[in-house]
Design goal:
about 10% strand; 3-stranded parallel β-sheet; about 100 residues
Length: about 100
């Protein structure tokens, strides 16, 4: 499976998120970032959920804007739900060495 990074950010941090996306994609790491990857006419929240399910990693641009963004919080909540569902389906156990 090719890695896909979901980029979560506040609209205040769009320039930073775009720079991160560009840097990753220049290294052949695929990214999903709104609004670039949102299909017009399709349900926005469903597209976010689908992208999170297909993603192998979520990168969040943490700032005061993202810290207070209800959209970023929703994306984090959805990503956690996807992770919990995947953990229930997988016999593998993740462990931290920290």
């Amino acid at each position: 499976m090719n890695p896909l990074i979901f980029l979560s950010y506040s609209s205040q941090d769009k320039l930073i998120a775009d720079a991160i996306c560009s840097r990753l994609e220049n290294q052949n790491i695929r990214c999903w970032i709104a609004p670039r990857d949102v299909n017009p006419g399709a349900d926005y929240s469903n597209q976010i959920a689908d992208a999170l399910e297909r993603s192998t990693v979520m990168v969040m641009v943490f700032s005061s804007g993202s810290n207070s963004s209800r959209h970023v919080k929703s994306e984090i909540d959805q990503a956690m739900a996807v992770t919990e569902m995947a953990a229930r389906r997988s016999p593998a156990v993740a462990a931290s060495t920290a």
